[in-house]
Amino acid sequence: MTTPTPQRGKSFMPVSIGLGAVYLIAILALVGAVLAASGDGKGGSTAGGTSTVKVSLSEFKISGNLTAPAGKVVLDVSNDGSMDHNLAFEGTKAITKTLSKGATELLDLGELAPGEYELTCTIPGHADSGMKATLTITEAGASGGDAPADGMAAHGGGDTPDYAKMDEDMLATFAAFPAKTEGVGGQLAVPRILEDGTKEFDITAKLAKWEVEPGVVVDAWTYNGTVPGPTIKVDIGDKIRVNFKNELPLNSDIHWHGIETPFGMDGVAPITQDPVKPGGDFTYEFTLDRAYQGMYHPHLHGQMTVPNGMWGVIQAGPTPIVQGRTIAGREVPADVKPVLDLPMVLNDAGVIGLSLNGKSFPATAPIVVNEGDWVSMTYYNEGLLAHPMHLHQFPQLVTARDGFPLDSPFWVDTLNVAPGERYTVMFQATKKGTWVFHCHILNHAERETGMFGMVTAVVVQ
Ligand SMILES: [Cu+2]
């Protein structure tokens, strides 16, 4: 077993990419090419001691002839992409407002000494997806900002896309799937059973190395060293005790998202408890008296620590499924029994970035089943954005939202999951093949160097 599979008891056999995937490659390569062709390419100009440098923002790059002589520098920023972007200048407060498609802004950087300065888009996920660039300030009097007006790749600035390379990279990322990486997150936590039946778990917040995609090892913020943290699964009516230890360099807590607890157990420092200081600990104790599909994460400093990897699944009772009903003409047999019950934790920011269960394609786990099998799956969105999750060929029956079983389950092929939401679905793998499964915000699934992020596949044998 070489792949980080959350599913158990199934072997994965390497497969060639099915027709669906080839079709997806074609579409995404085309979209990538169109986006890449939108670069501006005009160089800087110097007038009256002030250099104006044109900067073009698009998905996901910052381009232009990013060089100017020392002195006063103004950036002429334009959003030539299709999403909102901004531009921030490293180490200062200089930042444009959020620029919508087609918007422009002049950003005055003041006097700059020779050196290299970093430019980034601060919209979550964009810098990690490639929106970082270096502004080079040369000695005053040295030639800078003298690119030809037509900008035809005079400085190798990459304004002319290398389409052949893009095609090559695209195929290479598919060929690498499923890629082996170090570490598997979301492993089932085994409790100690105390005398009164309480289930006791140990959860330690700590920094750890985490391989998000092959060769990309980040400094993650974790529970017990993995992303996601350990999965807590208990029965309805169970009392749990969680011994929380904080080995982070800053205060923390654990909020039990979607779980009803007594006031002092909600994990919202400093309101329901004191912050747990570095080296400190706290004991959470509560009873899960109904079925839950919940998640846990820090509340304190959540905007930084959650995207960086601090989240886990907590469930009480069985995953909600539908049996013996016909919905919109599609029958779900009375004896249906999913062979897999998968968590699908979404993230899109911080050091973990666009990912499924803490891994980015091609390191995401394939869902391997036999023809005719049913699968149940629960999405948990721990990210900062909504993600429309699209499964090819097999309609998803939405059975529960935030753990509450639906009176009227419904079929979708694309399910939008907003931050904080959980949706439980089930689907039947009715056809053999490798069927791609991905977020349908296309740049959450593909970048110029190939497929990445929120992509995996259902492999039906
Ligand atoms: Cu997405």
Architecture overview:
- The chain has helices spanning 19-36, 163-175, 302-305, and strands spanning 45-47, 50-58, 61-63, 67-69, 71-79, 88-89, 104-112, 115-120, 132-138, 192-193, 199-213, 216-223, 232-234, 239-246, 255-257, 281-287, 292-297, 312-316, 325-327, 330-332, 340-349, 353-356, 367-369, 374-381, 387-391, 396-401, 404-412, 414-417, 422-428, 433-439, 446-447, 450-451, 455-460.
- It is mainly beta.
- The protein has 2 domains: 19-27 and 180-460, Immunoglobulin-like, CATH 2.60.40.420; 38-160, Cupredoxins -  blue copper proteins (Immunoglobulin-like, Sandwich), CATH 2.60.40.
- A hairpin with a 2-residue loop joins strand 1 and strand 2.
- The two termini are 17 Å apart.
- Mean pLDDT is 86; it is low at 1-44 and 142-157.
- It binds copper (II) ion.
Which short descriptors sum up this protein?
5-stranded mixed beta sheet, 6-stranded mixed beta sheet, 3 helices, disordered N terminus, binds copper (II) ion, Immunoglobulin-like, 461 residues, mainly beta, 8% helix, globular, single chain, 2 domains
Helix content: under 10%
Number of domains: 2
Count every helix, treating DSSP H or I runs of 4 or more residues as helices: 3
**Low-confidence stretches at least 5 residues in length (pLDDT < 50)?**
1-44, 142-157
- Using the coordinates above, name the CATH class of the largest domain: Mainly Beta
Ligands, ions, cofactors: copper (II) ion
Question: What is the CATH architecture assignment of the largest domain?
Answer: Sandwich
Shape: globular
Mean pLDDT: 86
CATH topology of the largest domain: Immunoglobulin-like
How much of the sequence is in beta strands? Answer: 35-45%
Taking the alpha carbons of the first and last residues, their distance comes to: 17 Å
Count of DSSP E strands?
Answer: 33
